[in-house]
Amino acid sequence: MTKAARTRPAPIPDAANEDLPKVGYSPDTPAQELSEQDLSDDATAGAGEAPAYDLIELLFFAYRDFVADPDRILAEYGFGRAHHRVLHFVDRHPGLTIAELLDILRITKQSLNRVLKELIEQGYIAQRTGTSDRRHRLLTCTPEGRQLAQRLAGVQGRRVRRALAEAGPALREPASRFLLAMIEPEERAGVSRLIAGGESAAESEARP
Question: If exposure means fewest CB atoms within 10 Å of the residue's CB, which of 100, 150, 184, 191 is most exposed?
Fold first, then answer.
């Protein structure tokens, strides 16, 4: 097992309409499950330094409004954010396997299966058996799924373009570096490859 696999966070349950990670204290996941080393590292890293409340809260409000735009569209279909994420990554990476999608989304297989079942039954996602390995199920968007995925990406893209126009296009590269730096170090190369390997809108439109 690689170091990245050992340190990868466990998947979290994901409801159809909202992310519901386990947070804070609960009898099932008591705080003492954290190792002494984890607690020591956190205490050392934050010693004498106030949390960056401005950035923490800006990230919260930016994300709140960033997802609100597609939420309004998803509500028309009775879908939630889990459906959006599946549509987005399958549209960007046609032929994605179930295992690859689980690795991207970090949700439980049960949660993904439920969301996929709905998207397949309603005609937004299609699946086929892999050619080199028949155990694999390869996922693609149907024309209807592609249209919905790009409609959702369109409203989010407009918000990003508006923010860059207000802040200055020169900030795009620093913003990308900042967001990448928020990701766990061992995951950054894989995320960068995934982003670079995604289809552009033009390539998606050119697909039969």
Answer: 184
